[in-house]
TrEMBL record:
<dbReference type="Pfam" id="PF03446">
    <property type="entry name" value="NAD_binding_2"/>
</dbReference>
<dbReference type="InterPro" id="IPR004849">
    <property type="entry name" value="6DGDH_YqeC"/>
</dbReference>
<dbReference type="InterPro" id="IPR006114">
    <property type="entry name" value="6PGDH_C"/>
</dbReference>
<dbReference type="InterPro" id="IPR006115">
    <property type="entry name" value="6PGDH_NADP-bd"/>
</dbReference>
<dbReference type="InterPro" id="IPR036291">
    <property type="entry name" value="NAD(P)-bd_dom_sf"/>
</dbReference>
<dbReference type="InterPro" id="IPR002204">
    <property type="entry name" value="3-OH-isobutyrate_DH-rel_CS"/>
</dbReference>
<dbReference type="InterPro" id="IPR006183">
    <property type="entry name" value="Pgluconate_DH"/>
</dbReference>
<feature type="domain" description="6-phosphogluconate dehydrogenase C-terminal">
    <location>
        <begin position="187"/>
        <end position="329"/>
    </location>
</feature>
<keyword id="KW-0311">Gluconate utilization</keyword>
<protein>
    <submittedName>
        <fullName>Decarboxylating 6-phosphogluconate dehydrogenase</fullName>
    </submittedName>
</protein>
<keyword id="KW-0560">Oxidoreductase</keyword>
<dbReference type="InterPro" id="IPR008927">
    <property type="entry name" value="6-PGluconate_DH-like_C_sf"/>
</dbReference>
<comment type="similarity">
    <text>Belongs to the 6-phosphogluconate dehydrogenase family.</text>
</comment>
<comment type="pathway">
    <text>Carbohydrate degradation; pentose phosphate pathway.</text>
</comment>
<dbReference type="Pfam" id="PF00393">
    <property type="entry name" value="6PGD"/>
</dbReference>
<dbReference type="InterPro" id="IPR013328">
    <property type="entry name" value="6PGD_dom2"/>
</dbReference>
Length: 329
């Protein structure tokens, strides 16, 4: 199907590649002229120097997908689209916007008859090959219109992961890799919690490997000091262990190529969604002790120098392409 795509960064560009490969007709725009023209040439589509030209090229009712930075940039682009699009058009915000902002933006656009979908998008730089996990909020009508796009971007049904109860039965919600979570804002809310959990999982792994790294010089009796191969431990855990995961895969890869992780920074950034998760926990009076501790650990990483923090930086770099290299690497 035909759609406009605004924002061609680490994830956006690969989403356009995945969509174009499947036969969707993408009209693209990026503030960076070189980026938009190069991608248009690569996938065989048209790039536009401004959003107005892109919207004018789309046949109504239109579908426009945004993958731009959350906050002021998203607000500016959605405001402009609200002035350019017409009743019946669908606008999808695939970035990491705050769910409360998404609710307000959906209401603003609905007053003009424009349907907005908030889409939490997970997959990082590997989404082109693996597909993206998509968590969506919005009206049924809007979701129904974009199903072909969602089916292309998502990984699809993983037969190996199906439980015996589902084998041979109907497809379960979310099984194809995308899920309509509910009304406007719910997609970004679910993605926010996803990122909060991600903080906790990463922190637990980082602390465990930091223990391994200090085992050889721990303040304990000499017979209980160990010189451990961290890369090998990560590798064996990947195979049948209950803590096996994609995050562990990425950590194993980082350790195999750089055992000391000294090419990664000890200062671990936070993108904002971890903070929002804790704010939501406070608002909802729900305990989130592990997630809060993981967030505060990232704050403290800016004052410490240890392998655990390098492990966190390595994971962020591996799955999201985030700039996490030290001045050495």
């Amino acid at each position: 199907m035909e759609l406009g795509f605004i924002g061609l960064g680490r994830m956006g560009g690969n989403m356009v590649r995945r969509l174009s490969k499947a036969g969707h007709q993408c009209h693209v725009h990026s503030a960076n002229q070189t980026t938009r023209e190069a991608l248009a040439k690569e996938v065989g589509t048209v790039s536009y120097a401004d959003i107005g030209s892109l919207v004018a090229a789309l046949a109504a009712p239109r579908v426009v997908w945004l993958m731009v930075p959350a906050g002021e940039v998203t607000e500016q682009v959605l405001t402009e689209l609200g002035q350019l699009c017409t009743s019946g058009d669908v606008i999808i915000d695939g970035g990491n916007s705050h769910f409360k902002e998404s609710v307000a933006r959906a209401q603003m656009l609905a007053a003009k008859g424009i349907l907005m979908v908030d889409c939490g998008t997970s997959g990082g730089v590997f989404g082109l090959a693996r597909g993206y996990s998509l968590m969506l909020g919005g009206a049924n009508e809007a979701i129904g219109r974009i199903v072909p796009i969602l089916d292309t971007l998502a990984p699809g049904i993983d037969a190996a992961a199906r439980t015996p109860a589902r084998d041979g039965g109907p497809q379960a919600p979310g099984e194809a890799g995308w899920l309509h979570c509910g009304k406007p804002g719910s997609g970004h809310y679910v993605k926010m919690i996803h990122n909060g959990i991600e903080y906790g999982m990463m922190q637990a792994m980082a602390e465990g490997f930091a223990l391994f790294a200090s085992a050889g010089h721990a303040v304990v009796e000499e017979d209980c000091r160990y010189d451990l191969d961290l890369a090998a431990i990560a590798e064996v855990w990947r195979r049948g262990s209950v803590v096996s995961s994609w995050l562990l895969d990425l950590g194993a890869d980082a350790l195999a190529s750089n055992p000391t992780l000294d090419q990664y920074s000890t200062e671990v950034a936070d993108s904002g969604e971890g903070r929002w998760t804790i704010e939501a926990a406070i608002d909802q009076r729900t305990s989130a002790q592990v997630l809060a501790a993981a967030l505060f650990a990232r704050f403290s990483s800016r004052e410490k120098n240890e392998l655990g923090n390098r492990f966190l930086s390595a994971l962020r770099n591996k799955f999201g392409g985030h700039p996490s290299l030290s001045s050495k690497g």
